[in-house]
Structures are given as structure tokens and as C-alpha cells.
Amino acid sequence: MTEPIIEVRDLWHWYLRGTPLESVALQGASFTLAAGEVVGIMGHTGSGKSTLVQHFNGLLRPHRGSVRVFGSDLGDKHVDPRPLRRRIGLVFQFPEQQLFDPTVADDIAFGPRKLGCDHAEVRRRVQGAMAAVGLPFDTFKDRYTFGLSGGEMRKVALAGVLALEPEVLVLDEPTAGLDPRARRDLLNVLRALHDERGTALVFVSHNMDEVAELVTRVDVLADGKTVMSGPVREIFREERRLRELGLGVPAATELAGALRERGVALRGDVLTIDDAVEAMMWTSSSSPAA
Q1: What dihedral angle (degrees, nearest 10) is formed by the CA atoms of 30, 32, 37, 41?
Q2: pLDDT exceeds 70 at position 247
Q3: Residue pLDDT, tens place only, 104-150
Q4: How far apart are CA 213 and CA 209, in angstroms?
Q5: What is the pLDDT of residue 30?
Q6: Residue 176, Cα to own-chain centre: how many angstroms?
Q7: Residue 272, helix vs strand vs coil
Q8: Stretch among 114-118, 170-174, 259-263, 285-289 having the lowest mean pLDDT
Q9: Per-residue model confidence (pLDDT) at position 267
């Protein structure tokens, strides 16, 4: 079996450790990611999701347990995490708040320039990143960064990470605060990155519909622990357990459950509206003729 890109075992982390304000953020979390996978991390606010993903590129170091990324042990203080940050792109919640350059192209170019890329390579990376997020280069390169819409700013922030050409993209609540159209656009961008480039994705969210639509496997965190892990369809079958954890199920799953309670024979793994339509069409076609 291929060695995971990211492997987290029994991870513990405290904030303000050794002070009267000490609090535990992670207490036994685990996680794995293989090349090309799309994995979701779910959990209610305060469950440890953001703390966990900040260990993936060494922004945080484990206090107990192990974190291995591309074979490097991040528990070893002698391991320099900076090279990993070129391979693991981390997009924080509300990443547009990290924009700082007046023009779009210059903001996206910051990372490649810091890598020492020459002018031609910087331009290639900026153009490629802008194309990937759906921002035409000639239209947006000289636009004033802070005059863009919220969705456009989110795309610029994502493009700034993509310009580093990471092998893994970790997104912490990437659609938070976006309107429905901007959410849809961003999800389409992420799907294309995976399908066309083979980029592995880690999608952190408490939006059940987005998780169901995008990922193939899910880890669920509660109180700093990984309490559920498995294929997305299997996880969302555990509706009672998810509700006990303060989570829910996708709207289509809830609709299918309500229909089953009313006698409609629908299969139990409906996650999306497309699934629901397909299941109802199958039920209709398989029913005895009147």
C-alpha cells in the first residue's frame, strides 16, 4: 500500500500550555490522506478542525502523538517545515483578509517571487493560477484587489496559494460568508483542480451539503478527538450519531428519510439532489404498473 501523504496518529495539542489559561484543543485526533484523495473534516465549532489542519504543514507542532507529512516527522524539532509549505497549500477561513497588494496579479505573484522564480516563471504561475480559479488574466491582473466582490477576492486568495503549485490543498471553511452563486463557483473550481490536476483536497466544513457533494471520505471530530471516519455515504447513514454530535445530514438525505417514513421505497444512501432524483426515478420505474 502506498504510504499516505499525511498521517496523523493520536495527536494532542494545547493552547497556552503551562499557564492558568491552558486549554486542550486536540486529544487523540487521527487523520490520513493519500495522493489524489478528497477528504472532508467535519465537526461543530470548537471541535479542533482548524487546529488539526494547521499541523499538516508545520504551522503547529504536535505536543503528543505523531504527524508525518511526505515522510517527514513534524514532531522532530530538527525538521524544517518550510519546504513542506510549498507542497501543502493551506487556505484559511476568510482568506481574503490576508490580501495585501493593491493589484490582483501582484498579490498572486507574491509567493512565486518569494520562491525565487524568475519573471517568466512568475508570470506563468500567476496566469495558470488565475485561469484555474476562473479569473481571466487580462481582465483582472491590474484590477484593484480591494475593489473586487467577496467571491472574487476569495478566488484571488485561492489563486495566491495555487501559484505555489501545491500537491495538496487544505481548505478551512472555504465557502463561509459567500453567496450561493459564489459558493457554487468555488466548489466547481475545487472539483476541477482535483479532476484536471490530480490535486489532493482536504475540505473542512460544517456544511453537510457541500461535504456530500465534494468529498469521498469523511473524518468527524468532537472535543478534539476523531470519533467517526469512513466513506462519505457510510458516515451520512449514521444520522442519529451525527445529530448527537451537533451535526446533521445533507438536505437531500433528510428529504429521502422523510419520504421513506411516508412509505416511499428509496435507497438509504441519498446524499445530493441528483441522488434523490435518480432514486425516485428508479423507484417509479420499478413500481408495478397500475
Answers
A1: 10
A2: yes
A3: 999 999 999 999 999 999 999 999 999 999 999 999 999 999 999 98
A4: 6
A5: 97
A6: 12
A7: coil
A8: 285-289
A9: 66
- Contact call for residues 33 and 201 (beta carbons, < 8 A): no
Chain position carrying cell 478551512: 172
Query: Which domains are present in the chain?
Result: 1-87+166-242 (3.40.50.300), 99-164 (no CATH), 250-290 (no CATH)
Residue the block writes with cell 413500481: 287
Q: CA–CA separation, 236 vs 218, rounded Å?
A: 9
Cut 0.85: pTM above it: yes
Q: 280: burial class by Cβ within 10 Å (0-12, 13-18, 19+)?
A: middle
Residue closest to 158 by CA, chosen among 146, 141, 175, 138 = 175
Look up residue 235 and give its amino acid: I
Indicate the helix (H) or strand (E) that contains 171: strand 168-172
144 touches 81 (CB < 8 A)? no
Q: Phi and psi of 32, rounded to 5°?
A: -140, 150
* Of 219, 204, 201, nearest in space to 34 by CA: 201
H/E run at residue 15: strand 6-15
User: Following CA atoms 221, 224, 227, 228 in sequence, which dihedral angle do they give, to the nearest 10 degrees?
Assistant: 30
Report the alpha-carbon distance of residue 90 to residue 153 in Å, rounded: 16
Per-residue pLDDT tens over the stretch 279-289: 777 665 555 54
